[in-house]
């Protein structure tokens, strides 16, 4: 009798665990559904003109459910930013780790940022929309971000003799690389027709020249 009772209890616990697992999966799917809908709305209409109702409608869910998961529009955008930063940093870290020399790490990080924009254009735009206050809050976060990855690569390059820079400090040098890569990507994405018509340069060629820019800024080739 005890064996039967124990088996029934185990079966009940197993069913409860499976039910929770399915519930968590459904929650994750719904949240991702909302975030993907929000990215489309933000890109199409801008942050200010996008409403929670529009996000809910595009996601095919009730506004009440969207509010339940994220609270408000700022909450939705904050989660997009969190995922964007995590994805971007992961790609940059992974790219840098595959290289030994500091200058090669910097080049790999620049290329990884280009790939990030291609793979996650919505995430890229979300980060570009960050306000100064949001950026400051992120910089104060204890988590590793892409500028820290750049700084580590610069330090590696200085130590192995492949990197030098003329900036006042490591922070300026790291931000300069990030700003340069970001600028190349934005121009390539938004000014492709002008580039081709006036200078005979297509967007892909411009992005390839990012390597030249990074090398000229940081290479210790003298």
Automatic annotation (TrEMBL):
Residue intervals of the HTH tetR-type domain: 28-88
DNA-binding region: 51-70
Highest taxon of source: Bacteria
Pfam families reported in the protein's UniProt record: TetR_C_33, TetR_N
Alphabetized UniProt keyword annotations: DNA-binding, Transcription, Transcription regulation
Gene3D superfamilies: Homeodomain-like, Tetracycline Repressor, domain 2
Annotated spans, Disordered: 1-29
Protein name, as recorded: AcrR family transcriptional regulator
Organism field: Pseudoteredinibacter isoporae
